[in-house]
Write a sequence for this structure.
């Protein structure tokens, strides 16, 4: 039972950055914008988040620095794609390259430094419950925040008028504009929310997952988050299942290597990304009623003057 509890705790920790980044990208894509720069925003959030926490001694300050870094990166993307109507795919890829390079520059002075990781919740009596206590009442605040974000986004998209307008901008921006809705402004706020979530997800890595920063520590998690949005069919509830599934695959490779089964470590390290490709292929083949993606996803919108 102790081993099973440790595995579940590891899966929750590994899944949290995927879930936070993916829920932000889901809102962005629901508004009709395809941002492939999640990886770049995440690594910038990791570098700035660790730097902020190391300089201030506060995990909360570090998390805020990560959010700000991701939001600023998203504003660059919004300026190019919404303001100048540049191709979204090319801009997203460029943003990832920029983020990886800039984060290495910012974080160069913090390599080798360590901080105190985010504290875990402790409720006397509840956290001490065997097995379930630590899982339900002994996690760090990022894990609870990730689940709260999913619930909040679901309520926003399907229970509010603003969420309906955002989905309308993603499905048919011409009609939404004709009805008088500010499509570009809606998309800008959606992109900013996605950037803030990506920055927070990146900051989680050095603030809670590992108490140090190394260049490239996101290790492709931004790309997995992008695949999770497709896996979840752009629905917040399914995103939780997908994130924990991919988190379990990530942890599986570590435990398999620890058991000494003789499987090459390179293959096990590639397993999460191989699973991403397989899932995307299966989803594409299983669709018989057309794509469930927002109809205007990735389409540049230039309002009539």
């Amino acid at each position: 039972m102790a081993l099973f509890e440790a595995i579940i705790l590891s899966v929750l920790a590994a899944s949290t950055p995927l879930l936070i980044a993916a829920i932000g990208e889901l809102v962005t894509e629901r508004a009709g914008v395809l941002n492939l720069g999640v990886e770049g925003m995440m690594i910038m959030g990791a570098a700035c988040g660790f730097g902020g926490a190391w300089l201030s001694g506060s995990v909360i300050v570090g998390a805020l620095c990560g959010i700000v870094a991701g939001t600023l990166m998203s504003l660059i993307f919004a300026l190019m794609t919404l303001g100048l109507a540049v191709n979204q795919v090319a801009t997203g890829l460029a943003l990832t390259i920029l983020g990886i390079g800039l984060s290495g520059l910012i974080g160069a002075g913090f390599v080798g430094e360590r901080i105190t990781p985010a504290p875990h919740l402790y409720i006397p009596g509840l956290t001490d419950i065997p097995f379930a206590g630590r899982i339900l009442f002994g996690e760090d605040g990022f894990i609870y925040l990730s689940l709260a974000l999913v619930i909040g986004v679901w309520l926003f998209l399907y229970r509010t008028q603003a969420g309906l307008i955002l989905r309308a901008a993603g499905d048919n921006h011409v009609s939404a504009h004709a009805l008088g809705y500010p499509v570009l402004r809606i998309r800008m706020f959606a992109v900013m929310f996605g950037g803030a979530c990506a920055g927070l997800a990146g900051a989680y890595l050095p603030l809670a997952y590992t108490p140090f920063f190394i260049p490239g520590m996101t290790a492709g998690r931004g790309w997995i988050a992008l695949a999770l949005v497709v896996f979840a069919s752009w629905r917040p509830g399914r995103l939780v299942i997908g994130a924990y599934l991919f988190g379990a695959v990530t942890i599986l490779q570590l435990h398999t290597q620890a058991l000494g089964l003789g499987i090459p470590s390179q293959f096990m390290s590639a397993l999460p990304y191989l699973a991403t490709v397989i899932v995307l292929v299966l989803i594409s083949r299983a669709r018989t009623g057309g794509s469930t993606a927002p109809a205007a996803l990735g389409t540049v919108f230039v309002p009539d003057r």
About this structure: The mean pLDDT is 89.
